[in-house]
Amino acid sequence: MKRCLSFILVLTMVITLLVGCGGSEDISPTPTEGESNVPAGEKIIRITADSTPVIDPAVGISNSSSIAFVNLYDTLVFPTEDGVKPWLATDWEVNQEGTEYTFYLKEGVKFHDGSELLASDVVFTTKRLIDIGEGFAYIYSDIIKEVVAVDDYTVKFILNNPFGPFVDSLCRLYIVNEDLIMENLNDGAYGEYGDYGRDFLITNDAGSGPYMAKELVQQDYFYAVKFDDWHMGWDENAPESFKIIYGTEPSTVRTMLASKQLEISDMWQSTESLEALSKLEGIEIVPYSTRLVQNVYYNTSIEPTDDVNYRKALSCLFDYEMIVEDIFVDSKLNYGPVSSYTAGSTETTQYKYDLEKAKEYLSKSKYADNYQDYTIEFLVNSDVQDIEKIALAFQSAAKQVGINVEITKAPWVTIQERVSSPESTPHVTTINAGPQYNEAGATLESGFHSKTAGTYENCHWYLTDELDAEIEDALATVDRDERFAKYEKLQHKIVDEICPCTWIADLTERVAYQATYIEWPAAEAARSGELKAYLMGYPYFCPDMRYISQ
């Protein structure tokens, strides 16, 4: 019966979507004999996204912002699948206690205005990020005691306490040009620093990365062009520019891909949309991972989701196998809050679709006698069709055990606003999140430490000093094996004892791209049978892409 209901729901959505898309006929233009598959004009990478990026690296944190950051700015280290490699820093040293890190910088690196990047810029960047206290600041705000420029090419970080993954985390410290920002201050709340250059960095960049900001139009697009003097050098076939285009509407994405006005689709296209896109001439579907987990958050501060057994009951109402087989295609069953592609992840107890088990948990909850009196709000992203399918299946299952579920929809910006306080956060919402550096501790801190409460990564409102202390202790453990053992214990505790969320899929992201004229490492790996794992933003590091002729 369960499978039948799930199948009917998915089939209904498929039919509706295909009708809305006008079927699956190939509408792409076919090149005439001798005609190049490469569009005339600049070598550009255009990507659709669910939001216009925030390009100030002390403020932004979303997927579209991260795509912009990795292309506009340089970091001390660059992430690899197994760790990090030198980038702006050529080498580094750490003292025995793990509280002092000394980095030696590459000489001759130029910012986009032609000035040289120095250790003082690293100092300014760090202080600015911590002072503003947004974006990725939570990673560093409690751990960095002092940062000093020893000389022009040497910078030292002094930590309050050891922080085991410190070097790996520095892929999120995007270095800004101190002089340029100080020349563009407006009035603001930061004393002698005014607005700290926030107004300036709404539409400008202050980086040394491969591309320079050219134009940003809110709710429309962001456009950046190649920086010829980038310190890593250029391949002649690398993209000359990139553009992040706001909008995920399937028919629009389809038309743009067919007419070669788009190189890569957003990750939010539904299974049915991707199937239709794959039939376009020259379009291939590329799977990759940014170590995302699709989280279902429960608001633990309001009735009835404040009860752990009630939350466990809800966790038994998701058809996990159907989700990874039919909705998040190519994804995997998830076994806890940390993606299996992340260093330090472990397999925990997996909740399963089981109506009888759900009833058993309900009988143990403090709402055993009146849970049918409540209506549970399930908030979904109105721009993501696949999420609504999950909510509909959940609603159907909940009805069978006597739980009333109301599905509401909102765009991403509204969802972010709603989850920023416990009073406005719905009972249930589903948002994906991943680590900002490749360790389980990154997910545990951003997803379960009190300092990130009210962000899209942490909106369950289960906040305790005890859990905070355990996360901090794990991160402060310098020995990697010991640190990972503590991560493992924490993951089991969160799943078995707290259950503030349900983790419904270890996501494989899938996008459509122009295979006839773009060479892309993620696509090359997929063709060879490998699923490439990245950090958010880094799959779209444009200097690694190539324009090719057919």
Describe the secondary structure blueprint for this structure.
Elements: H1 2-21, E1 44-49, H2 63-72, E2 77-79, E3 84-86, E4 89-94, E5 100-105, H3 119-132, H4 137-140, E6 144-151, E7 154-159, H5 166-169, H6 178-182, E8 211-217, E9 221-226, E10 241-246, H7 250-258, H8 271-277, E11 283-288, E12 293-298, H9 308-315, H10 320-327, H11 355-364, E13 375-381, H12 385-400, E14 404-410, H13 412-418, E15 428-433, H14 440-448, H15 465-475, H16 480-498, E16 501-506, E17 509-514, E18 518-519, H17 521-527, E19 546-547
Parallel strand pairs: 1-10, 13-14, 13-15
Antiparallel strand pairs: 2-3, 4-5, 5-7, 6-7, 8-9, 9-10, 11-17, 12-15, 12-16, 18-19
Helix pairs in contact: 1-12, 9-11, 14-15, 15-16
* Annotated CATH architecture of the largest domain: Roll
Quaternary status of these chains? Answer: single chain
Give the N-to-C terminal Cα separation: 51 Å
As a whole number of angstroms, the C-alpha radius of gyration is 24 Å
Biggest pleated sheet = 5 strands, mixed
Q: What is the top-level CATH class of the largest domain?
A: Alpha Beta
- Arithmetic mean pLDDT: 92
- Biggest sheet strand order reads 14-13-15-12-16
